[in-house]
Amino acid sequence: MNAPTDLKTFLAAQEKKSLLRFLTCGSVDDGKSTLIGRLLYDTKLLFEDTLASLEKDSRKFGTTGEDIDFALLVDGLEAEREQGITIDVAYRFFATDKRKFIVADTPGHEQYTRNMATGASNSDLAVILIDARKGVLVQTRRHAYIASLLGIRHIVLAVNKIDLVGYSQQVFDDIVADFTKFAAKLGFVTQAAIPLSARYGINVMAKSPETPWYKGPALLTHLESVDVDTALEENPFRMPVQWVNRPNLDFRGFCGTIAGGKVKPGDTIAVAKSGRTSKVTRIVTMDGDKEQAVAGDAVTLTLADEVDISRGDVLADAHARPDVSDQFAAHLLWMADEEMLPGRQYLLKIGAATVPAAISELKHKVDVNTLEHMAGKTLGLNEVGYANFSLAQPLAFDPYKDNRDTGGFILIDRFSNATVGAGMIDFGLRRATNVHWQALDVNKQARAALKGQKPVVLWFTGLSGSGKSTIANLVEKKLAAEGKHTYLLDGDNVRHGLNKDLGFTDADRVENIRRVGETARLFVDAGLIVLVSFISPFRSERRMARDLVGSDEFIEVFVDTPIEVCMQRDPKGLYEKARAGAIKNFTGIDSPYEPPEHAEITVKTVEADAESHAEALVEHLRQRGLLG
Fold it and tell me: What is the pLDDT of residue 49?
């Protein structure tokens, strides 16, 4: 047999092998990287130059004396080698005669929990390592819980460093019992416990005589045989549209990766959000048209009808459609140093769709040690909670347990573009679809015309004592003198009624501004000129208030007064109390103020008196044609 034929035979055999995606996780220094390095070494997938480099690096960075430090095969970052820890997620491929594997080595440190979640989101099985000397730790429980949340149903409890406890069966049994009790509520389908020593290869590739009391398989034997068939092809058809392909007037195709089920020409599919249906006419790929496409295939579909479809839409089985709603309940893993604040607007990305969204209510937090539900208003870094979400527009989705791709999402900070959270949808809040905006015959334009003006929000922001309320009050008096219809929303006055239930924590400040923004929007709809005088310390909430009415009806007025001047004025004695510790969470003292970056108007009260500023603001409104 010639070489080309041998290669074809080899490649054909590889294609027929099943693929297992798994991750290693657990607490720091439990031996995750060492285990993967051992698997790569013992499956003889390392080139000679790699082995030579590994031996050299082991002498320089290693922690195993004269022995090869297998962890260095995976800890590729220089910082990781110097510290002896894994920071990023490292992916490695290896294969045996029975199966192909993609393994994700995830960090053990708590501050890198987000990286562990990234690895878990694409894995079918988790190998949770435990140092036999330390037993089950908090991070062990956290990783097990997150693995469960992210849809992993098969786990291996790898009790590592069993050699350092004299190959004790009692130590092994105690650890397994402790973990099994904790994991009973996590819904794992299979759970195998294996004693091993990654450094010396004990029970990694084959059963070891050092543990005669262990009757189960070696780790690799288990990984080769465990059945983790996710049966994505048996799910209803789903394809998030990533791109609409229009190379010419004669072709219009919809590109995406199939997230569930299968499709063939002639099938009836629906656009989940609009409900429009059509039939598939072609399945186009780089290798020509296909007779059928299944989950995981990247394809272009053409349809029999001209249907309005754009990026972010979901094509679905017309007889088994996903939920469509602008509200849902979901589990949330918080990944940012800055705490999660209910009411704050983030960007929610699910599939190819991205929409503004907010956590409308945090139902509870989860204690990763006991899995108990705890009351809370916010989430901190690496905390997990269960919350209701409110979206700016309806989206199509499935429960995460049914489909990871259409049920998982990330939250993005609107200003930094950083990913701050990962969510797993539980179910849609169907009642949200029963609430619609009522069309009225007398609209905003009609109400404004009756008043001879154009509605607008003048949003005054600045530190306490900056002069916001003084200037806003003068502006309203001048507008009233000209016969204009106004309303002034002042921070102190609103807290006596509408917001009297709110305190001054960051979460309460966000809700305070959300309510005021919604109230200002209603007043704008009534055709009024609305003056809002609030510290409103966070850019995100001021941006949210702007978005409620639109940039053409929102004027941000930054009353830029140095904090030293505000302290000298201190008309209510608040700064003095705050510095004495009598008032907590006071803006400028122990709570931050984020000045506007692009305010339409900046008022510097140290350069002119309030009367002059008020007159200039009224003139600005007149020049913009807002006063009729």
Answer: 47
pLDDT of residue 221: 93
Rounded to whole angstroms, the Cα distance separating 285 from 300 reads 6
Helix or strand run (H / E) with residue 480: helix 468-481
Count how many residues are written for the chain.
628
Handedness of CA 62, 66, 69, 73 (dihedral sign): positive
Q: DSSP secondary structure string, 147-164?
A: HHHTT--EEEEEEE-GGG
The CB density around residue 255, as the number of other CB atoms within 10 Å, is: 17
Check residue 379 and report its DSSP letter: B
pLDDT at position 444? 84
Domain end call among 284, 300, 317: 317
- Tell me the β-bridge partners of 616: none
The CATH number for 171's domain is: 3.40.50.300
List, in sequence order, every beta strand (DSSP E) within 462-500: 486-490
Does the annotation mark 536 as catalytic? yes
Q: Which tens digit of pLDDT belongs to each residue from 434-452?
A: 455 555 678 888 888 888 8
Residues 476/531, Cβ–Cβ less than 8 Å: yes
Judgement on whether residues 220 and 242 belong to the same structural domain of the protein: no
pLDDT tens, 90-102? 677 878 888 888 8
Q: For the chain, which ranges sit under pLDDT 50?
A: 1, 47, 49, 75-87, 432-434
Q: Residue 267's domain spans which residues?
A: 232-317
Domain boundary among 201, 225, 249: 225
* pLDDT value at residue 492: 80
How far is residue 74's CA from residue 33's CA, in Å, rounded to a whole number? 6
Kindly state the tokens that stand for 395: 């989206």
Phi, psi of 428 (to 5 degrees): -80, 145
Rounded Cα–Cα distance for residues 573 and 562 (Å): 17
Of the residues 27, 466, 536, 540, which is catalytic?
A: 536
Cα 84 to Cα 201: distance, rounded to the nearest angstrom: 20
The answer to whether the beta carbons of residues 380 and 339 sit under 8 Å apart is yes
Q: Helix axis angle, 468-481 relative to 610-623, nearest 10°?
A: 50
Question: Which amino acid does the sequence have at 402?
Answer: D
**SS3 state at 171:** helix
Does residue 7 fall inside a structural domain?
no
**How high is the pLDDT of residue 602?**
94
Domain count, the chain: 4
